[in-house]
From TrEMBL:
Record text on cofactor binding: Binds 2 magnesium ions per tetramer.
The EC number(s) this enzyme carries: 6.1.1.20
Keyword field: Aminoacyl-tRNA synthetase, ATP-binding, Cytoplasm, Ligase, Magnesium, Metal-binding, Nucleotide-binding, Protein biosynthesis
GO biological process terms on file: phenylalanyl-tRNA aminoacylation
Species lineage: Archaea, Methanobacteriati, Methanobacteriota, Stenosarchaea group, Methanomicrobia
Known partners and oligomeric status: Tetramer of two alpha and two beta subunits.
Residue ranges the record marks as coiled coil: none
Cofactor: Mg(2+)
Domain Aminoacyl-transfer RNA synthetases class-II family profile: 235-487
Keyword Aminoacyl-tRNA synthetase part of the UniProt annotation: yes
Annotated protein name in UniProt: Phenylalanine--tRNA ligase alpha subunit
Annotated source species: Methanohalophilus mahii (strain ATCC 35705 / DSM 5219 / SLP)
Entry GO CC: cytoplasm
Top-level EC class: ligase
Origin superkingdom: Archaea
Length: 491
């Protein structure tokens, strides 16, 4: 006998079917020790092995509605009307005899069936008013549901009766299991109601029971379940790669608070207090307030109001320290850079920060209110604009972008300012952030004497390009199929 590894339940079902040929799961449950669920499950397994066939059918049954029951007894409204008259009769008289409602229903059908015509408020009966199919059908039905085959009623006739709400349709699902020729062969080949042992237990060994048991052999043809190895999220992998590049270029990683005072997020960066980026619609403002760093208050205030002691006119107007105290979710990681510089005003400083920033953006395929930035600063004697461009170029080269260029840009805190762009096949030049040399208006009030190169690069943009995504949101949604498909590396 071919080894089919039948379970005890499958054997039960097969032996039952051997006698009955065809049975429902209910029949099997009645005739074996199995529950309906187990009988069903075993039947499907038998089907997979070609020993049985499972068939699901929906059968339609019909029964009279309560209205239908009444008419089956007294006749359809049109029949009741026609029975009451033997010549032209005023509708009004009929309405009194029966009911206005009944006559209302009847008139339509009288016309449709050609049993009567209606003229000037009179019903004039026709000569031939023989029994119609719907009446015959009505007489055959009652409150127990039956199939059309059982009654011989025509499909079209029953449909009309259902539409008239005189008959109700009931759908019942039924499942039958039929043994196949192969199944019969197996069932007849001395099938025993014992189950193969799949696990050898210490109990079986100690008692010696194992000697009389049959063991299920290994099935080496069965395809194993796919396993998915754990891996680092592709976005995290890219972030780690960027981090690694800056570390290798001799930078130190810095971290800062997500909640920043407006002072560090805006004022220390010489952003005027009436700058539109500070508005509610662009920035997440918090109710809490921060203490301001006393040592820089006067210098920053003076820089904003009149340009401090340097050759600058400042923004003019009054600088309000209460505005600077307001907390925000950092709108850029530049707040982390500037605080780090204030804390470390002596050269050299070479630091980067790769972290989240927050802006009030309407979410769409290219905007999310949370996103990552790659921020960096270099402060040292004789640092030049050329050093800045070289540094960024080097980073992008190491990321695998060959063509890098810089377009003039504007930020309130840098001069000159540029926007680095990389060239992507199919897309052309893609802008990837901002960079520049911090203005004296930024560095002076914090006691920084050397030039500072600074940049803030978009990380998620770069990730979209590298991972071939059309929608930024995929980076944050953990779509399991996408994650499984994304390669760990490309060769
Ligand atoms: N903070 C800027 C980027 C930037 C950082 C540093 C210098 C110049 C520009 C931004 O978020 O877009």
């Amino acid at each position: 006998m071919e080894d089919l590894n039948l379970t005890l339940n499958e054997k039960e079902v097969l032996l039952f079917l051997k006698q009955k040929g065809t049975a429902s799961p209910g029949d099997i449950a009645d005739g074996t020790p199995l529950k309906i669920e187990n009988a069903t499950q075993a039947s499907f397994l038998l089907e997979e092995k070609g020993l049985a066939e499972v068939k699901d059918e929906v059968s339609e049954k019909y029964r009279l509605s309560s209205e239908g029951m009444q008419y089956a007894k007294k006749g359809l409204p049109e029949r009741q009307v026609i029975n009451k008259i033997d010549g032209p009769t005023p509708i009004k008289d009929l309405q009194e005899m029966l009911s206005p409602q009944m006559v209302g229903i009847a008139t339509g059908w009288l016309k449709r069936k050609g049993w009567a015509s209606i003229e000037k408020g009179n019903i004039i009966p026709a000569t031939d008013i023989s029994e119609t199919d719907d009446e015959i059908a009505l007489a055959k039905l009652d409150e127990t549901a039956v199939t059309l085959e059982e009654t011989g009623i025509d499909q079209k006739v029953i449909k009309d009766l259902v539409k008239r709400k005189l008959v109700e349709k009931e759908e019942t699902k039924s499942r039958t299991i039929t043994i196949t020729a192969e199944g019969r062969k197996i069932a007849a080949s001395g099938l025993e109601l014992t189950e193969d042992i799949t696990q050898l237990t210490s109990r079986l060994l100690k008692s010696g029971e194992w000697k009389n048991k049959t063991f299920r052999p290994y099935n080496i043809d069965k395809p194993p379940k796919r396993v998915f190895a754990a891996k680092v999220h592709p976005y995290q992998r890219l972030i780690d790669q960027m981090r690694q590049i800056f570390l290798e270029m001799g930078f130190t990683e810095i971290k800062g608070d997500i909640i920043q005072s407006s002072f560090w997020n805006f004022d220390a960066l010489f952003q005027p207090q009436d700058h539109p980026a500070r508005e509610m619609q662009d920035t997440f403002h918090l109710e809490s307030r921060s203490q301001l760093p006393g040592e820089y208050l006067e210098t920053v205030c003076s820089m904003h109001e009149k340009g401090g002691d340097i050759e600058s006119r400042g923004w003019g107007g009054k600088w309000d320290s209460d505005v600077a105290k307001r907390n925000v979710l950092r709108t850029h990681t530049t707040s982390v850079s500037i605080k780090h510089l204030a804390d470390n005003p002596k050269p050299p400083v070479k630091a980067f920060c790769i972290d989240r920033a927050y802006r009030r953006e309407t979410i769409d395929p290219t905007h999310t209110p949370e996103f990552e930035q790659l921020e960096g600063v270099v402060m040292d004697r004789n640092m030049s604009f050329a050093n800045l461009l070289g540094c960024l170029k080097e980073f992008y080269h190491r990321m695998g972008f060959e063509n890098v260029r810089f377009r003039p840009g504007y930020f309130p805190y840098t001069e000159p300012s540029v926007e680095p762009e990389v060239y992507i096949e199919e897309l052309g030049w893609v802008e990837l952030g901002g960079a520049g040399i911090f203005r004296k208006e930024v560095t002076e009030p914090l006691g920084i004497k050397e030039p500072v190169l600074a940049w803030g690069l978009g990380v998620s943009r770069l990730a979209m390009l590298r991972l071939g995504l059309k929608d930024l949101r995929e980076l944050y949604q953990s779509d399991i199929e996408w994650l499984r498909k994304s390669p760990v590396c490309k060769l």
